[in-house]
Amino acid sequence: MHCMHLKSNDTLIGYFAIATAVENIQKLKGFHYHAFGEGRWFPCLHLVNVAVRDRYKGRDLGKILVGTAITIFAEIGPQIGLPHMILTPINADVIPFYEALGFEPYDGGARMFLPLQTAVQVVEQERARKAQIDALSADADAEPPAGANDSEVAEPAAGIDAPIVRQEMALPVVSSTS
To answer: Which residue in 76, 52, 59 sits closest to 2, CA to CA?
Structure first.
């Protein structure tokens, strides 16, 4: 489980949960899988739950949470052989939200998937975008070159250095007794 809290008072404002799962290979044809179970199943990462507290909705926090899940998927998917992230939309209203993040419908539209390659590309593009913003911020903080006027100096993007949230990963603790 991944939790998002306000920095000011540690209030939980959102979370997501992911789990490894298996999917029937017949539901997502046209891809190459490392199938098992007589060739009927393949492993995937399941975005099980995403939630944002009602009073914090409309601030792109859901997008931040799903973006974090996609980043985790892009990092671990290649390492452990997960070709897709899958999810079941809670209702039809959220489908455009997930489609805008790269997910595609399958299983008659009842479920959605994100191919690993798409996740990797999205993460690379986001990292490049953040690097550009960081470079603009650094340039804006530097002294302008001699003879430059104020209109030639880029302004940093609003809110870059003022995140409203703290995120943490909560992993289950497994203990055994002998």
So the answer is: 52
